[in-house]
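Quick question, first post here. What does this chain look like in 3D?
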Amino acid sequence: MKISVKVKPNARQAKVEEIGQNSFVVWVKAKPVEGKANQAVIKALADHFHLPQSAISLLKGQTFKEKLFEISL
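> Answer (accepted):
Ran it through. Tokens below.
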């Protein structure tokens, strides 16, 4: 399953909110430096979907706020 994610880095708290079918907004505490925010997003999505982090991969948007992830169920 592919999902679209809008990332809000450097937030006060980490949370995941579904805004539509396969569309999410993810707030993470990590700053967007050296891929730290991307790793935090993967961890937040893994917790949200109750999956291991290895089941989630970033397909597109490595350096942008709009990202495309693939989740292997």
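The longest strand covers residues 2-8.
Residues 16 and 45 are 7 Å apart (CA to CA).
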